[in-house]
Write a structure and sequence with these properties.
Largest sheet of chain B: 7 strands, mixed
Largest sheet of chain A: 6 strands, mixed
Number of strands of chain B: 11
Oligomer: heterodimer
Shape of chain A: globular
Strand content of chain B: over 45%
Structural class of chain B: mainly beta
Radius of gyration of chain B: 13 Å
């Protein structure tokens, strides 16, 4: 069974601060996706990374896939209240995704 | 482009009752997924359809859960009889093709929140 561990589980910060959340596994994935889920809604895809060592930037969000394709990180610069939500990582293998439990981020104004 | 539609949005039932959820994927999407998301956890895949065929139902509790995707378009997920531990959000998602090498994007619906009393 492939498991993804996300840390921290909860994170509460002030507007303007930087933060990093992590997604780790003992398994190798062919790809790693990050989603954000807001209350009462389904997850929305932020990014897909497929190459070991790959770094992708989406405005203030920076995503990195580990060299061994077992881990990933999401860094947010100058967090804003609109970044509040549940951040989920999901590892792709064969034809399906395995999700982590998520990091619940609250950005206070 | 219309997103993934799900209904109902909320459902409250008593244990041992039956319940059904409906999902209409994005037009033209071949693959449809049902996930269960228990509070505080990430989504867990229950069943995956490619058109109207089942690709993976290894985590579907088949003694009480069933799902179908007639004509390869919309889908229903049924629980009969429900247990307290079935309280969760049931998410439907669709993608153009196989998640495969995971370049495909899954589009999620808003989910159905089920409370079993």
């Amino acid at each position: 069974t492939q498991l993804l561990e996300q840390s921290p589980q909860f994170l509460s910060i002030q507007e303007g601060e930087n933060l990093t959340v992590y997604c780790n596994s003992s398994s190798v994935f062919s790809s790693l996706q990050w989603y954000r889920q807001e209350p009462g809604e389904g997850p929305v895809l932020l990014v897909t990374v497929v190459t070991g060592g790959e770094v992708k930037k989406l405005k203030r969000l920076t995503f990195q896939f580990g060299d061994a394709r077992k881990d990933s990180s999401l860094h947010i610069t100058a967090a804003q209240p609109g970044d509040t939500g549940l951040y989920l990582c999901a590892g792709g293998s064969n034809y399906k995704l395995t999700f982590g439990k998520g990091t619940l981020l609250t950005v206070n104004p | 482009e219309a997103g993934v539609a799900q209904s109902p949005r909320y459902k409250i039932i008593e244990k041992r009752q039956s319940v059904a959820f409906w999902c209409n994927p994005i037009s033209g999407h071949a693959t449809l997924y049902w996930y269960q998301q228990i509070l505080g956890q990430g989504p867990k895949l229950l069943i995956q359809f490619q058109n109207n065929g089942v690709v993976d139902d290894s985590q579907l509790p088949k003694d009480r859960f069933s799902a179908e995707r007639l004509k390869g378009v919309d889908s229903t997920l049924k629980i009969q009889p429900a247990k307290l531990e079935d309280s969760a959000v049931y998410l439907c998602a669709s993608s153009l093709d196989w998640i495969g090498s995971s370049r495909e994007t899954q589009y999620f619906g808003p989910g159905t929140r089920l409370l079993v009393l």
